[in-house]
Amino acid sequence: MVDPKEMSYTAKFQASKIDGCATEFMSIDKFFGLEYWWNRKENWELSSKERKLYMNARKVYLDYDYCLDRKRYPKVPQECRSYG
């Protein structure tokens, strides 16, 4: 059995585009404006087609998901609580 604790991980990104905005240290208020695409209501959820593509990508490429690892993380990590 493979023990994920003993493995090193490498993430590779191809044809990726990262959107963001600069801010002063600990000044995040401006991140919540509607001028940013990620705050618009139409981007709050995946469409049916996007959800299918996402689930297929998880099935094909995801080897380990710590959000589902109750043996190693009996208490659900905070960042996994809205996971679905």
Automatic annotation (TrEMBL):
One of its GO terms (molecular function) is xyloglucan:xyloglucosyl transferase activity. InterPro entries: ConA-like_dom_sf, XET_C. It comes from the Eukaryota. Residues 35-80 form the Xyloglucan endo-transglycosylase C-terminal domain. GO terms for biological process: glucan metabolic process. It comes from Brassica oleracea var. oleracea. GO terms for cellular component: apoplast. Pfam families: XET_C. This is Xyloglucan endo-transglycosylase C-terminal domain-containing protein.
